[in-house]
Design goal:
single chain; alpha/beta; 7-stranded mixed beta sheet; two-stranded antiparallel ribbon; 12 helices; 24% strand; globular
Length: 284
């Protein structure tokens, strides 16, 4: 954990992954493209996005000096330059959207004591995903402020003490959308959600949403856009096995893959491992 200025806290893994990478940036992006090619080559749709690290979106609150700051800065620059040049199939640029919203509102996109983005940023993630999925999908949709409340950030535990901050609450309103079913027996690795609507449009192709804790924390602002969606944790291959993951992809018409920047920078993404890519190639 890195203690920044004005009570800001940062996740130390941003530095660890950048300074001790498993793969080169070129190799990581090659694997992302390979994943996209396998899925798209089977006739399925594929979308890919990166949740930026807090150290990327809020570098201004980092301390003046900390271990690993040089390799962190250099690796980040290399990664984002290469990612934008590569423009992987189905790529959604969340970094630009979050930084633009932050400039326009003057409100931070990430919590002060947590490694994740705010509820408002989660809503923007859902909006950008909806825009990429289907034109007009966000019709009859509003992101509404719902007051304030206390919250203990996840980085306080790394200090050994709870660290509380007051946060803005936001809720997603999609007129006419109602939950029909949610199968939770497969939690925490995955679960299935079905929605119905008599007003706001829903994305109807069967979707597999693969993501890490950024997607998991954003589900209230993402799931209501789908008629039929299964959320799968991005580290599931390490627990369920490559063939099981490939079978879930094979049952889907749309695959959305989100992963936080630090794991791509460090080359530690289970969905991009050789065994998973080979299993997907066989199954699809």
């Amino acid at each position: 954990m890195i203690e920044g200025r004005a009570g800001w806290l940062y996740f130390g893994d941003d530095v660890t992954e950048a300074c001790r990478p498993r793969w080169s940036v070129t190799e990581t992006l090659r694997r992302v493209r390979r994943l996209a090619e396998i899925v798209r080559g089977s006739g399925r749709r594929f979308l890919f996005t990166v949740a930026p690290d807090k150290t990327t979106v809020h570098p201004d609150r980092l301390p003046e000096r900390f271990p690993g700051q040089t390799c962190l800065r250099q690796r980040k620059e290399e990664f984002w330059t290469a990612l934008r040049a590569a423009s992987p199939p189905g790529y959604i640029d969340l970094r630009d959207r979050l930084e633009r919203a932050q400039r326009e509102s003057g409100t931070p996109a990430y919590w002060r004591t947590d490694s994740h983005w705010t509820e408002h940023s989660a809503g923007l993630y859902g909006t950008e995903l909806a825009r990429a999925l289907q034109p007009g999908l966000s019709r009859d949709t509003r992101l509404v402020r719902a007051g304030q409340g206390p919250r203990n950030g996840d980085l306080g535990g790394l200090l050994g003490v709870p660290v509380e901050e007051t946060i803005d609450r936001w809720r997603l309103v999609r007129d006419g959308v109602r939950l029909v079913r949610q199968d939770e027996h497969e939690l925490p690795l995955s679960f299935h959600t079905a929605n119905a609507s008599d007003r706001a449009p829903l994305y109807r192709p069967q979707t597999l949403l693969i993501g890490d804790s950024f997607t998991r924390n954003s589900l209230p602002w993402v799931l209501p856009y789908f008629a039929d969606v299964t959320y799968l944790r991005s580290d599931a291959p390490a627990k369920a096995g490559p063939d099981d993951i490939a079978e879930r992809v094979a049952r889907s018409e749309m695959v959305v893959f989100e992963i936080v920047e630090r794991y791509l920078v460090g080359g530690h993404a289970e969905m991009l491992d050789d065994a998973v890519l080979a299993a997907l190639d066989r199954a699809l």
